[in-house]
Description:
6 helices, mainly alpha
Amino acid sequence: MRILRLSLLRQFLLLSKNVKKALLLINMGIFLSLFAATSASISFYIEKKINEKEFLLIENQQEQRDTSSLLTMFATMLSFLDTVMNNEKSKVSTSSLFSMTDFGDVVLSNKDFYLPVILSAKKEMKDFSELFNEKFSFEEVGVTKEFTFLEMILFIVQIWTEEDIKRESKR
């Protein structure tokens, strides 16, 4: 069977008009294979460049998202700080108005003005006292007591008298 096929191919190629058709088919095959190889290499090169650009784009988008969230956080913190500053400014202006009048001493005492600050500081010191374990000795009327740094400050704040607070407020 194989011999029959080879002989048919040989007879086909021996005819001059069939040789031209065969060469045309062979040239067409070579052209198509070269075209496929070059288009594949060009596609590979272009896809590689596209992947690089997409990677950079994704990286930039991630950075932009992170920056945006950071900016949002800073804006929130700034607005919170502005609110705190406005509240403090309002308290200061109110207290300074009351301090300029004789009526202010009747309405607000130094305890009203300083006590919330002292109590909040006392609460914060209690919260952070666990962080400072260093001991200090404090002697009072012949009795030595050992305190951590924050406990000593709390002790000093607790023994403040109203006269001490008034004296410090006039400074």
